[in-house]
Design goal:
Helices cover 38% and strands 20% of the residues. The chain has 31 helices and 30 strands. The radius of gyration is 30 Å and the shape is elongated.
């Protein structure tokens, strides 16, 4: 311990990270206390932290006391009105000028100089450091103080370090920090500022970003969400770039698997790098197109970062006695290739949320879409647009307006808190606008690209972030409602209530609805939305003669030498998100069930699909899988499912085979799956058949010798029992799942499955559409019912009541 520290932390001007722990917030603020806590406890566990020291809060108080500045600051802030932007701006500027003009006391100057010299001995003369503010009340569970004070990067030499420290001290009184403290009820004079001086990670030569040990949108606690871009991390934090994104599933990560369940390439148009100008030590430059199109981390690095995030969360959770999600900044050193953690703080939005109440914003009407981007907040807001192009204009903003701008930074916080909604051109889901809007409970769309071109001051708009990862700005003030459900009051009936899902983007959010898993996870949405290319066009890429088509596919599959691997990865990620969201509950994934005309609509699909007069009862489902004309493409699906179960460790995935026409055909499908390494029974893999053809019911005994169970598909079963094309409007009046012939088929297959001790569920539309049909299958003894998410709660209540009546009867 240094001599100054030995005299007592409360009197020391300098404390090294090795001397600090999380209980030292009163001396060095939240950032520095956390860095010390991790440096001392987590370095042995593989969490790498660059060394550094803290200029303590005592140093700040000493500077002010030496010049009698505290009383002068009190006078300057007397009569402060944080809602009057001109008043706030003028007073804040006066306080900052005062502090920046104070001369450092000699003993404080010498203490900083000695500490920097020690850092030079470790890292080299004139070593580059990051200089970060760390307020003594920051990072409390209900207040993040994120970005309220300043950070300075690539600072070299004692004189520049002292100047950066002085500017940090002054930044305790930025306009946004004054406003934030006032609104949170903190006394300006009971809070002091510490400064973290930390060896820079040369991420200007590589990449950096932000990660959370929780999903920032839904509050799903099972995933690490990582964002990253080229260069220094300020661009990601500020929202100046649209970063790359990843999700990693923590429960199986901790078991040694590699569960990267999502990857997304961001725009990354600019990067921040070093300069040789001490007055402007960093600058932004354009990123070359080739680098913009590739991810800034490889899979090994993503897994390494996720493990560090899980280790950090586990440590802080153990100290808190409850799960403590964390907000973490990371950087990769371009000289050594090593990954580092440079900051960690508690996540402050979802950690404080009441998880017992499900709130859902529901848009009751639609209008023309003006702008779209990444949704933040799962809410809806509306009002008149106010286009604010710079912080100098913020005094023009009025409460309830929709803030539209290129990007925000912490100077904008005083008006963000009164906005009806926020829309920015740039930024990702961990940028400043996203973090602050979540904390304030305001819907926000980031990365919209052209919002400042498409919208104008005075436009009346509705900002909808309630429908998944894409947010929409609609023309007009549209009707919406907020529905609240007390989850604690929802009973769990004996009949298991599962969900039908297709969109990975909604999986985390929907997992909070009381459920027993997913009875039908459809691949078609993922193939259509994320892959878009026919699997045979990928497998036969080199043989394609259409150069325009080849160029299009090559562009979409950039970075994949093996085009088939693109299909496997994207399908595994999309389905993996669905399976992870509901882990460890069963998720039954139905293998692809496109008809030939639907396959033909995929890119390159017309080259490989025959024309059929009636695709509905043509070459679909099981019949394709073992066919020599499609078998290899089916192998890609099998590889994706294996990746989910074996690489990601998600063994709660079960397989469903659609449209199995004959028992013999079903056996061929099982054998084909096994040939591609997806073996029924291996590591508990269950293979469920769809019961949607009359033959499935008539020969249920025989089919259930092949399958581990049946899931009734009432849509196709009704069509084939009644001989009705369900796509034809001419006979739509005949199509009805409640027809007695259909109901007898349903009752019969339920009886057989129960008698044989096999799984029997229902995943067709009927129970979601007709409460009386749901009651019917419960009376028949159905084991599980899979419903559309919006009907789960009301059907759960109805089924629980029905079961009570049946018991009484």
């Amino acid at each position: 311990m240094s001599g100054t520290a030995a005299a007592g932390k409360d009197k020391a001007y300098i404390l090294w990270f090795e001397e600090l722990g999380i209980d030292d917030v009163p001396y060095v603020g939240g950032k520095n206390a956390s860095l010390g806590e991790m440096y001392g406890n987590l370095t042995p566990k593989g969490v790498t932290i660059p060394n550094g020291f803290a200029v303590t809060a005592e140093g700040y108080r000493h500077l002010l006391a030496e010049h009698g500045a505290m009383e002068r600051i009190r006078e300057m802030l007397s009569g402060l009105d944080t809602h009057d932007m001109d008043n706030l701006s003028e007073r804040g500027a006066r306080v900052r000028r005062l502090i920046r003009g104070l001369e450092f006391p000699q003993d404080l100057r010498e203490a900083i100089g000695e500490a920097y010299k020690r850092l030079e001995q470790e890292y080299g003369e004139g070593c580059d450091v990051a200089v970060r503010s760390s307020a003594t009340a920051e990072d409390l569970p209900d207040a993040s103080f994120a970005g309220q004070q300043e950070t300075y990067l690539n600072i070299r030499g004692l004189e520049d370090l002292l100047e950066a420290c002085q500017r940090c001290f002054a930044s305790l009184f930025t306009n946004r920090a004054i406003s934030y403290r006032h609104d949170k009820g903190f006394d300006h004079f009971s809070i002091a500022l510490s400064i973290g001086v930390q060896k820079m990670v040369r991420s200007d030569l590589a990449s950096s970003g932000v990660m959370f040990s929780i999903d920032t949108e839904s509050g799903f606690r099972g995933a690490v969400f990582i964002t990253g871009a080229w260069g220094l991390g300020e661009n990601v934090v500020q929202g100046a770039v649209n970063p790359d994104e990843w999700y990693v599933f923590k429960p199986t990560l901790r078991k040694g698997f590699r569960p990267i369940i999502m990857k997304k390439v961001g725009g990354k148009a600019i990067k921040m790098i070093y300069t040789r100008d001490s007055k402007s030590p960093t600058k932004n430059v354009a990123v070359p197109d080739e680098d913009r199109r590739r991810l800034v981390l490889d899979d090994d690095e993503v897994i390494a970062l996720a493990r560090m995030a899980a280790t950090i969360e586990d440590h802080y959770s153990a100290k808190a006695g409850q799960q403590r999600p964390m907000d973490i900044e990371w950087a990769k050193d371009g000289e050594t290739g090593k990954l580092y953690i440079v900051q960690a703080r508690p996540e402050t939005v979802h950690a404080m949320k009441d998880q017992a109440v499900l709130r859902k914003h529901v848009l009751r009407e639609k209008g023309p879409v003006l702008v779209r981007g990444q949704a933040v907040g799962e809410m809806i807001g509306q009002g008149k647009v106010n286009m604010i192009k710079s912080a100098a204009m913020i005094a023009q903003f009025k409460a309830g307006q929709v803030l539209v701008t290129d990007m925000t930074d912490p100077d904008w916080e005083p008006i963000m808190k009164i906005a009806g909604a926020i829309v920015t051109n740039r930024g990702g889901r961990t940028c400043h606008a996203a973090i602050v809007s979540r904390e304030l409970g305001i819907p926000c769309i980031v990365g919209a690209g052209n919002a400042t071109e498409k919208l104008a001051t005075g436009d009346k708009v509705t900002v909808d972030c309630s429908s998944g990862s894409t947010g929409f700005v609609y023309d007009g003030l549209l009707n919406f409602e907020v529905e609240e459900t007390d989850l604690g009051s929802i009973p769990r009936p004996r009949t298991k209530i599962m969900m039908n899902l297709a969109s990975p983007e909604q999986a985390f959010e929907k997992s909070f609805i009381p459920n027993d898993g997913v009875g039908l996870a459809r691949e078609e949405f993922i193939i259509n939305s994320y892959i878009k290319i026919h699997p045979l066009a990928l497998l036969r890429f080199d043989e394609l003669e259409d150069e325009q088509l080849k160029t299009r596919i090559a562009d979409m599959t950039h970075g994949y030498a093996d085009k088939g691997e693109y299909f496997v990865d994207k399908l595994a990620e999309g389905v993996g998100m669905l399976v992870a969201a509901f882990w460890p509950k069963p998720v039954i994934v139905r293998l692809s069930d496109f008809k030939t005309n639907e396959y033909a609509n995929l890119i390159g699909g017309a080259l490989f699909e025959p024309h059929e007069e009636n695709p509905m009862i043509g070459w679909r489902g099981a019949s394709r899988y073992y066919s020599e004309d499609y078998r290899e493409a089916f192998g890609l699906e099998c590889r994706a499912m294996r990746k989910i179960r074996e690489d990601m460790g998600l063994e709660n995935l079960e397989i469903m085979i659609p449209f199995p026409r004959t028992v013999e055909e079903s056996k061929k499908v099982i054998d084909t799956m096994a040939a591609y390494g997806l073996k029924q029974g291996e590591n508990g893999l269950k293979v469920i058949g769809m019961a949607e053809i009359p033959a499935n019911v008539i020969l249920a005994e025989e089919f259930l010798e092949v399958f581990d169970g049946f899931s009734i598909g009432t849509n196709d079963l009704t069509q084939l029992v009644l001989g009705v094309d369900r796509d034809s409007s001419l006979v739509a009046h005949v199509y009805d799942e409640r027809n007695e012939a259909v109901k007898r088929m349903v009752r019969q297959v339920i009886d057989v499955a129960n008698r044989k001790g096999k799984y029997i569920g229902i995943c067709g539309q009927a129970p979601s559409d007709y409460p009386e049909f749901a009651e019917f299958v419960v009376e028949c003894g159905i084991q599980t019912m899979s419903l559309n998410p919006d009907t789960v709660i009301k059907t759960t209540l109805a089924v629980a009541e029905l079961e009570k009546r049946l018991e009484r009867g």
